[in-house]
Each structure stands twice: as structure tokens, then as C-alpha cells.
Write a structure and sequence with these properties.
alpha/beta
């Protein structure tokens, strides 16, 4: 998000974000707090083939808040919601496979 938001001359193909996190509570104790200080480009989708977020309703509150922020700021953002895949780790998925993501990539 930051790279594409700050580099408006860059155009890319399809972008897929899985359980994104941008330090939505501005936690100063995070060792990456400064990294997330940027303005989200509301027109970022125009410089991609598509921009899709995959998120699960049972992920951490900060991830859900991140997605809410992205939806609020980005025009034409596509969000794919899941009920119970948590943070999409192998344990959460019950597998090392994520067929919905693979299908989305192959269809892009």
C-alpha cells in the first residue's frame, strides 16, 4: 500500500492483499510504527489491473480495522470476506493450500 501510494508513476498488474495490517491504532510500541506513516492514495486501483483484499471475519481486530480503513479510503477496492479462516496461516486454513487465492491469481 505504501509503495504504490507514494509512487504514483508506478503501474502494476493485479494486487492481492491477504489479511493486511497497517498499524491502524498507531501503536507507538510497534517496531514498525514509522513505516505506516503515509497517506493512502484513494485512486491506487487505477494504477493496477485490480486490487483485491482477502480477509476473514474472525481475524484480529486490528486487521479488520485495517480493512475498514482501506475500504474507506480506496475507490473501487475489492474485498473478499471469509467467515472462519482467521489470519490465513496453515493452522487457520487447516492446510498449506489457499485455493480461493490461487483461483483469483489465475483469473487475473
Amino acid at each position: 500500500m505504501r509503495y504504490l501510494s507514494e509512487n504514483k508513476n508506478v503501474k502494476v498488474g493485479a494486487v492481492f492483499l491477504v489479511a493486511p495490517w497497517i498499524n491502524p491504532d498507531n501503536n507507538p510500541l510497534s517496531d514498525t510504527a514509522d513505516f505506516f506513516t503515509f497517506d493512502i492514495d484513494p485512486n491506487i486501483v487505477n494504477r493496477t489491473k485490480s486490487l483485491t483484499v482477502f480477509v476473514s471475519k474472525n481475524d484480529d481486530a486490528s486487521v479488520l480495522k485495517t480493512v475498514e480503513i482501506l475500504q474507506k479510503h480506496i475507490v473501487d477496492l475489492r474485498v473478499v470476506w471469509f467467515e472462519s479462516k482467521a489470519h490465513f496461516t496453515a493452522n487457520d486454513l487447516g492446510s498449506r493450500e489457499f485455493p480461493e487465492l490461487l483461483q483469483a491469481i489465475l483469473s487475473a
